Amino acid sequence: MKHTILILLLLTSHLLMAQPRYNLTGLQREQLGRGVVVCRTAEGDSVSISWRYLDSDNLTTAFNVYRDGKKVNKTPIAGATYLKQPYEGGATYEVRTVEKGKETHRTDGRYTLKADAPKGYLSIPLDIPEGGTTPDGRRYGYSANDASVGDVDGDGEYEIILKWDPSNSHDNAHDGYTGNVLFDCYKLDGARLWQIDLGRNIRSGAHYTQFMVYDLDGDGKAEVVMKTSDGTMDGKGRVIGDAEADYRTHTGRLGRILSGNEYLTVFSGQTGENLCTVDYVPALNTGNWGDDFGNRSERYLACVAYLDGRHPSVVMCRGYYERTTLTAWDWDGKQLKQRWAFDSQNQGMRAWGGQGNHNLRVADVDGDGRDEIVYGSMCVDDNGQGLWNTHMGHGDAMHLMGFFPDSDQLQVWDVHENRRDGSTLVQAATGEVIFQIPSNADVGRGMAADIDPTNYEVS
Questions:
Q1: Which conformational region is residue 120 in: left (phi greater than 0), alpha (psi within -120 to 50 degrees), or beta?
Q2: Which of 364, 367, 433 has the alpha carbon at shortest distance from 400?
Q3: Whole-angstrom Cα distance, residue 274 to residue 289?
Q4: Number of alpha carbons in the 13 Å side-chain half-sphere of residue 222
Q5: How many angstroms separate the CA atoms of 115 and 113, rounded?
Q6: For the chain, what is the total number of helices (H) and then of strands (E)?
Q7: Per-residue pLDDT at 3
Q8: Is the dihedral angle over the CA atoms 236, 241, 244, 249 positive or is it negative?
């Protein structure tokens, strides 16, 4: 197969960047601390000290850095949140803010670097789960897979939520039993807060489990939201639904799950406890997904979006090759309420099926202060209605940003597999094609990068 790379230069001469129009004064946001991290460089003779710039900081805010109580910078650090210093063994580093030339004498963040710290990275020890045996006698083990972050305990610092994948995980197109999907929550020092076991009725593979980690109710502690089923065990050791249920296929297409109960669960990020479980929308056994062996129906995506311009919602998505569904949910700390459901199976919506990618993007594309979801060759408005549809079908890669610095509009760079439309750059607000490179080949990949600081480039 012949592979080609095409690079396009989008010439610009201004520095004004495209910006969504969020009302930041009313936006519910994470309550994070300074996030100080100290790491030895790869050479080992110095340390990199970095910290977080907060949206509550003034443009004139500067910083002082202390090592074991002694200030190491001569003048306040402005315009940066990074400092490089000689390595002098283990020490505790502190960052303090400076306002109008005066230090606040408040420790905004602290990090203790151990004397035996590795070079070039931070080391977080993991508890590797024990493997198991499938019903057909095959052994499997576990390896660390996808991860997300959130402040689950309200201390202002991120924890890591890690998914463990069994060695027999399968793409949706393949038969076979899989081991259970497990989730651990780790502090940055390696302390494990909890483990969730999704159970035998959630298959393991690249497209099955999308997990969202975010402070949805504004209490300062992130929740974890994902699809579950009978037999899922929460971080407290409590089972959801029927612990004895087994929906796996044991004849023919071994290991596939083609029926059974499906749920959407909000877990406490701090304890892993099941806070609320509702039926998953839409269910597997509803409508036409395009096949009958759990391939196209088991393609999942998810995101967090500010659909009302103020509060975060979780959007769980199912299907993109044939039927396309997106369902938005709101969590207020007590109840999980469905905000809206988009379904290409509904009357008059058939043309909205089959337009999804393997990824999605969230942004305020039309400047109304509320988020939209760009779902491949289509876009869903903040109210759950279709905003635009290019009808160019499925693709594997997509990028959304302000490609033209002299415009306040956002654009979408996308590739298509239909051996017709090739690659496109469209206006994110309307789907209008800015330019297109047609192709009679399956354009499998595409990307966007700021390769040249004087130009914006896509390939």
A1: left
A2: 364
A3: 30
A4: 25
A5: 7
A6: 0, 32
A7: 53
A8: negative
SS3 414: strand
Report CA-CA distances (Å) from 435 to 63, 286, 403, 423: 45, 39, 13, 9
Count of all residues that appear for the chain in the document? 459
Give the angle subtended at the CA of 160 by the CAs of 155 and 164, to the nearest 5°. 150
The DSSP code sequence of 67-95 is ETTEE--SS-B-S-SEEEEE--SSEEEEE
Torsional sign, CA 17, 18, 19, 21: positive
Q: How far apart are CA 313 and CA 264, in angstroms?
A: 14
Indicate the pTM of the whole model.
0.93
Share of the chain above pLDDT 70, in %: 94
Contact 231, 239 (CB under 8 A): yes
Mapped onto helix, strand or coil, the DSSP state of residue 136 is: coil
Residue 204: CB atoms within 10 A of its CB come to 25
Question: What distance, in Å, lies between the first and last C-alpha atoms of the chain?
Answer: 19
Q: Amino acid letter at 101?
A: G
Residue 434 CA to residue 419 CA, distance in Å, equals: 20
- pLDDT value for 444: 86
Q: What share of the chain is helix, strand, coil (3-state, %, to 5)?
A: 0, 40, 60
Separation between Cα atoms, residue 38 and residue 109, nearest integer Å: 11
Are 304 and 349 a contacting pair, CB within 8 Å? no
Considering 50-54, 110-114, 171-175, 242-246, the range whose residues carry the highest mean pLDDT is 242-246
pLDDT in tens, 60-80: 999 999 999 999 999 999 999
For residue 440, with 0-12 CB atoms within 10 Å meaning exposed, 13-18 middle and 19 or more buried, which class applies? exposed
In what side-by-side order are the strands of the sheet with 325-331? Answer: 300-305, 313-318, 325-331, 336-343
Which of helix, strand or coil describes residue 405?
Answer: coil
298: helix, strand or coil: helix
What is the phi/psi pair of residue 224, to 5°?
-125, 125
Q: Are 170 and 203 in contact (CB under 8 A)?
A: yes
Report the pLDDT value the prediction gives residue 9, as an integer from 0 to 100: 55
- Grouping H, G, I as helix, E, B as strand and the rest as coil, residue 350 is helix
Beta strand 398-401 with 386-389 is unpaired
d(CA 170, CA 138): 14
Per DSSP, the three-state class of 297 is helix
Distance CA 8, CA 399 (A): 15
**Which tokens in the block code for residue 146?**
């996808």
Q: Residue 7 pLDDT more than 80?
A: no
| Nearest Cα to Cα of residue 381 among 324, 430, 416 | 430
In one-letter notation, the amino acid at residue 193 is L
